[in-house]
Amino acid sequence: MEFTTLKTLTDGIIDLVVEFHYNGHGNYGVLPFYRCGIYLAGAPVKVGNLTLRIQPTRPNPREIEQLLYEGNIGYSIFEPYRGKGYAGRACKLAAKIARQHALTELLINCNVENKASMRVIEKLGAQKVKEFDTPASHLDENDPTPRRAQFRWRIDAE
Ligand SMILES: CC(C)(COP(=O)(O)OP(=O)(O)OC[C@H]1O[C@@H](n2cnc3c(N)ncnc32)[C@H](O)[C@@H]1OP(=O)(O)O)[C@@H](O)C(=O)NCCC(=O)NCCS
Questions:
Q1: Which atom of ligand 1 lies closest to the CA of 77?
Q2: 60-83 burial, b if ≥16 CB within 10 A, otherwise e?
């Protein structure tokens, strides 16, 4: 997969900075991803992180499995900076990278008890697909309770 040459995307409030990318051939799963820092626009103040996973146009069964259980996007905002809409802004900037990979929709999975994240997803206009239990092999050590809601976020109309 060819990664974008874009390094920093901005909406004037936050900057999304590509800090690392992974080609899908190592210890971090089969899907390539971008790991981005979220910064206050034009300032060296980091407020959170976002991961964007990219599946190929014709994903194989292992790629589909990781996508369904982990989603395309994961994010976190450091506590002092929460409640300012930064996670949603970062998702919208990440969608620009996803479009460069010809993706027209993104899956976002969220712990059913995570009201703040659910709100972020709702404000993006994503549609709930289903709830499911994440198998241990796809659980994040920071979020070990398995029940997840899966949302589909269309990004082709933005
Ligand atoms: C979920 C998270 C990313 C939301 O990011 P954010 O940039 O604060 O999102 P928003 O500013 O849009 O706020 C979302 C909701 O959080 C709640 N909220 C508001 N202020 C808050 C604060 N100071 N602290 C926590 N939650 C707050 C509100 O319900 C808000 O909804 P509203 O806009 O309708 O009032 C952030 O809370 C976080 O990093 N949590 C820990 C990691 C995590 O859960 N990641 C998501 C995994 S799927």
A1: 39
A2: eeebebbbbbbbbbbbbbeeebee
Distance of alpha carbon 70 from alpha carbon 53, whole angstroms: 9
On the question of pLDDT at 140 being above 90, the answer is no
Q: How far apart are CA 151 and CA 119, in angstroms?
A: 12
Q: Which of 82, 109, 121 to mutate to test the pocket of ligand 1 (most atoms within 8 A of CB)?
A: 82
Average pLDDT, the chain: 96
What's the pLDDT tens digit per position in 123-137?
999 999 999 999 998
Question: pLDDT tens digits, residue range 14-25?
Answer: 999 999 999 999
Reported pTM: 0.96
All domains in the chain, ordered by first residue: 8-154 (3.40.630.30)
User: Measured in angstroms, how far is the CA atom of residue 56 from the centroid of ligand 1?
Assistant: 30
Pocket of ligand 1 (CB under 6 A): 74-77, 82-88, 110, 114, 116-117, 119-120
